[in-house]
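Reopening this one. Same input as before:
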Amino acid sequence: MNLDDYPDQDGKEVWPSQDEVDQPLDATDDVAFRLAVRCGLRSEEVIGVTPNDVVDTDAGMILRIWNGAKTGEYRETPIPEALANTITTIADVRDEPDDEPIVDVSKRTLRRRIAAAAEQLEAEIGDAGWQYVGMHDLRRTWATQLRSADVDAMVVLDWGGWNDLDAFLDHYRGTHTPEAQRRERGKVDWL
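Same output, byte for byte:
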């Protein structure tokens, strides 16, 4: 887990590794957590996702964000097929129209759920870094993992709804994933 001090407030920015992200994903079927860490959604966007927003396109399964939380702009971001199937299954069994949100909680409740999950992980795993993990850290982690997998920065910007490359690089990309650091360390014999 990579941590860095916030430049202008208390606390830390956190970028869990892929393995650290997989731990809570394996332990929960929380759609909200998955939308944040697998689709890069902001809190406001997570609670707005409806079954109608999941679409199979020529580019693969995508999630349509009709009104981005910060920009108000439309964007499309890829969604893992398993998560798309989960949303479709929920829609099939519930007794609500497909234009009703899947995650029926407030932003505050959503953030409390993420904090409670992080607290539980800190207790189970013993890594104090989890105490700093919040909803926005999941979005940063998503972006960092895409870049570390060599996804083009402009594509990541498009998927995440960022308009400014400098802001993305300064605030979201973060440090390199442990996987990328191991790969780079492997290039040096003495490390």
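So the earlier flakiness isn't reproducible anymore. For the record, The two ends are 19 Å apart (CA to CA).
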